[in-house]
Specification:
It is a single chain. By secondary structure, this protein is of the alpha/beta class. It is built from 17 helices and 24 strands. Strands 16, 17, 18, 19, 20, 21, 22, 23 and 24 form a nine-stranded mixed sheet that branches. An eight-stranded parallel beta barrel has the order 1-2-3-4-5-6-7-8, surrounded by six helices. The radius of gyration is 28 Å and the shape is elongated. About 0% of the residues have low confidence. One of its GO terms (molecular function) is metal ion binding. This is 3-dehydroshikimate dehydratase.
C-alpha cells in the first residue's frame, strides 16, 4: 500500500516536515498550501528535495469555495485555479484537492455544481491536472460522500474524481459500505483520520481533535475493509488536525503516523481474513499478535536503593540477590518480581523505569514491535545469560518481552534459587505510568499495537495539579493492565516537588487487612487519608462502624460496584514513584477511580509539607 501524509499534520518548516516524513518511511506527502506559502524554498527546490529524499508529491491542497456560485465569482475562481495549476506544474504535482463549498455557495443545484466543476476540469486537463472532489462534512450543500459521487458522475470527465476522507464520512455517522458501489478508478485519493467520540459541532471536532488511526474511537478497520473491497489501488494518506501534533516533535509525530498506518493494515487484514488476499491495494499483515500472559517484572531505577528496598521488605518481599555482574537486585513476593536498577541512575531518587511481560514467543513479539517502528532497547548479555528483547515506549519506559513461566529463566542470574512463596502478595495487579501531554495519544497507540492490549474508555480525575486524564490498556483477562495518566499541561518538567506527577506499581493481595497490619508493624509509612473521606464512605456505602474503624486505622480506601468490592492503600512517595496494594473481591474490575482525587490531594499536601 502506498502511504502518504499531509504536511499540515506535523510541526516545523516544510523542509523539516519532508525530512521527517522520509525518515519515517512514507512514500509521499500532500503539500498543504500554507506550508508552501511560508516556506523559504521555491517550488522547484521543494520538488528537488522530494526527489533526493525519495518522496512523491501526491496532492496539492486545499482548493476551497469553488462551486455553487454566481458567474462573476466563478470567473474569479477559475483565474485563481489556473494560477494553482501553474504552481503545481512547478512542483510536479498532478492532483489537487477540491473541497465542497462551505463559504461562497449561494445556489443549491447539482446540475450547476457539475457544470462548474466540469469547466474547472477542462481547464485542469490543459495542465495535466486531476481534481479530487471531497465532500466536507460541514459543506453548505454537498456534505456526504455519496452526494459528491453523484456530482462527479454528472461531471463525467476522466480527470475529475473523488477524495474520500474517513473523518468526513464517519463523523456524520454515514455508512462507509457505499464506498464499494463507487467505481474504483474514480477514487483519486483517500485520507484517513481518527477522532475521539465527542458531542460537538463537526467543524470544531475536525479542526482540534483529529488523531492518527488507533488513537480515537472510529472503526477505521471497517472503513478500510470497504475500501479494499472497492478495488481501490491508490494512495492512502493521513490528514490530521489537532492542538497537540503541531506542537510536538516532528520526527516522533511522523513515526507515530506511520505506525498507525502499519497497525491499521494489520487490523484490516484480520477483519477481512482470507478476503484480504489478491486486492490491488495490497495491505500487509504484521507478525502474529500474541496475548501477554502476565507481568514478568517491574523495574525501579534509583541512585540509592535503600528506601525502595525498605518498602519492599516491609510489604513482605524477599531479597533474591544481586545480578552476577550488574548493579541490579531482584526482590520477589508470590508471582510479583521487582527489579531495583542503579545503572544510569545518577540524580534519580526513584522512578518506574520499565517492566517485562510474559508472552508465548518473545522473538515474534519483538519482530512485530520492530515492524511497528518501536525503537529497540539493547541489553548486553553474556553467552550464559538469557537474552532480553526490549523496546522503548514514547514516554521512555523500557518494555521487555520474556518467556511465559512461573520462574523466568533470567532469575537464576541473581544467584538464589526459586522457592515457593506463600506470602500475602500474589502478583502485580497493574502499573500506572505518567504520560507527557503531547505523547498521550501516541502512547495509547504504541502499547495497544505492540503489546496487543485493548484500550478501555478514558476517565478524568480532578487534582490540585489540574485535571488528570486516565486511560486503561489491558488484556481481556486482566493479566496485564496499564493505566496511563496524562500529566497536566505545563507540569512535565517541573522542579516543584508538590507538582510532580508520580507513577506507581500496584500489587495484589487476597488479605489486605493482614498485609497492611504486617507492613505497619514493620514500620511502613502509609499515605495518610483524611477523616472526611471515611465520613463520606459511611454515607455512600453504609459500612458498619467496625469496618470503617479498621479502614481508617490502616489508611485503607474502599470502593464497591454491582460486581464486587475494591480495597487498597498507598505507600509514601519516593522520588516520583510509590507502591499501591489492592484487593479485589468478587468480580470488581476497576481501579477505585472515585478514590483517585483523595490520593492525588493527599500526595500533593504531603509533598508540599516536605518542602518546608
Amino acid at each position: 500500500m502506498r502511504t502518504s501524509i499531509a504536511t499540515v499534520c506535523i510541526s516545523g518548516t516544510l523542509e523539516q516536515k519532508m525530512l521527517a516524513c522520509a525518515k519515517a518511511g512514507f512514500d509521499g506527502i500532500e503539500i498543504f498550501e500554507q506550508d508552501l506559502t511560508v516556506s523559504a524554498m521555491s517550488p522547484e527546490e521543494v520538488k528537488a528535495l522530494a526527489d533526493r529524499l525519495g518522496l512523491t508529491l501526491d496532492l496539492f491542497q486545499p482548493f476551497r469555495d469553488f462551486e455553487g456560485v454566481d458567474p462573476a465569482t466563478l470567473a474569479a475562481n477559475m483565474a485563481r485555479a489556473e494560477a494553482k495549476f501553474k504552481l503545481m506544474g512547478r512542483l510536479g504535482i498532478d492532483t489537487i484537492l477540491l473541497c465542497s463549498n462551505v463559504g461562497t455557495a449561494t445556489i443549491n443545484d447539482d446540475a450547476l455544481f457539475a457544470a462548474q466543476i466540469r469547466e474547472l476540469g477542462l481547464l485542469a486537463a490543459d495542465y495535466g491536472v486531476k481534481i479530487a472532489y471531497e465532500a466536507l462534512a460541514w459543506g453548505t450543500y454537498v456534505n456526504t460522500y455519496l452526494h459528491s459521487w453523484r456530482i462527479v458522475e454528472l461531471v463525467d470527465l476522466p480527470n475529475v474524481g473523488l477524495c474520500l476522507d474517513s473523518f468526513h464520512i464517519l463523523s456524520r455517522g454515514d455508512d462507509p459500505a457505499g464506498i464499494e458501489t463507487i467505481d474504483a478508478e474514480k477514487i483519486f485519493f483517500v485520507q484517513l483520520a481518527d477522532a475521539p467520540v465527542l458531542s460537538m459541532d463537526i467543524l470544531s471536532w475536525s479542526r482540534h481533535y483529529r488523531v492518527f488511526p488507533g488513537e480515537g474511537g472510529f472503526e477505521l478497520d471497517t472503513f478500510m475493509g470497504h475500501l479494499v473491497r472497492s478495488g481501490y489501488d491508490g494512495i492512502v494518506s493521513l490528514e490530521i488536525f489537532n492542538d497537540v501534533f503541531r506542537q510536538s516533535n516532528v520526527e516522533r509525530t511522523a513515526v507515530d503516523g506511520m505506525r498507525s498506518l502499519i497497525w491499521l493494515q494489520d487490523l484490516t487484514c484480520t477483519l477481512l481474513g482470507d478476503g484480504a488476499q489478491g486486492h490491488p491495494l495490497q495491505i500487509r499483515a504484521l507478525p502474529e499478535a500474541q496475548r501477554p500472559d502476565g507481568f514478568d517484572y517491574a523495574e525501579i531505577r534509583t541512585e540509592d536503593p535503600e528506601a525502595v528496598a525498605g518498602m519492599l521488605a516491609q510489604l513482605g518481599f524477599t531479597f533474591r540477590g544481586q545480578h552476577r555482574r550488574k548493579p541490579v537486585t531482584l526482590w520477589s513476593a508470590g508471582a510479583a518480581r521487582i527489579i531495583i536498577n542503579t545503572q544510569r541512575s545518577r540524580g534519580i531518587t526513584a522512578e518506574v523505569s520499565g517492566f517485562g511481560i510474559q508472552i508465548p514467543d518473545a522473538a515474534l513479539a519483538t519482530e512485530r514491535a520492530a515492524a511497528l517502528q518501536a525503537p529497540a532497547v539493547p541489553r548486553h548479555h553474556t553467552p550464559d545469560e538469557q537474552p532480553l528483547h526490549g523496546i522503548a515506549a514514547p514516554d521512555d519506559t523500557e518494555v521487555f518481552f520474556g518467556t511465559s513461566a512461573a520462574e523466568p529463566p533470567w532469575a537464576v542470574e541473581f544467584g538464589h534459587p526459586h522457592t515457593t512463596e506463600t506470602g500475602l502478595i500474589t502478583g502485580i495487579d497493574h502499573i500506572n505510568l505518567a504520560q507527557p501531554w503531547q505523547a498521550f495519544d501516541e502512547s495509547v497507540l504504541f502499547y495497544t499495537s505492540t503489546l496487543n492490549l485493548a484500550a478501555r474508555p478514558g476517565t478524568e480525575v480532578p487534582s490540585p495539579m489540574g485535571l488528570v486524564r486516565s486511560q486503561v490498556l489491558r488484556t481481556d483477562d486482566g493479566a496485564v493492565r496499564l493505566a496511563l495518566n496524562i500529566v497536566p499541561h505545563g507540569l512535565e518538567n517541573t522542579t516543584d516537588r508538590a507538582l510532580r506527577y508520580p507513577e506507581h506499581i500496584a500489587l495484589h493481595t487476597d488479605d489486605i487487612f493482614a498485609l497492611a497490619r504486617r507492613a505497619a508493624d514493620a514500620g511502613m509509612e502509609f499515605l495518610a487519608v483524611p477523616k472526611n473521606y471515611y465520613e463520606d464512605l459511611a454515607a455512600r456505602f453504609g459500612l458498619d462502624a467496625p469496618t470503617l474503624a479498621q479502614l481508617a486505622e490502616l489508611n485503607l480506601l474502599y470502593d464497591r460496584d454491582e460486581h464486587g468490592e475494591f480495597l487498597h492503600f498507598y505507600t509514601e512517595t519516593v522520588g516520583t514513584m510509590f507502591l499501591e496494594v489492592v484487593q479485589r473481591r468478587g468480580s470488581y474490575d476497576g481501579y477505585g477511580a472515585p478514590n483517585a482525587p483523595v490520593r492525588l490531594a493527599a500526595q500533593f499536601e504531603r509533598n508540599r509539607a516536605m518542602q518546608y
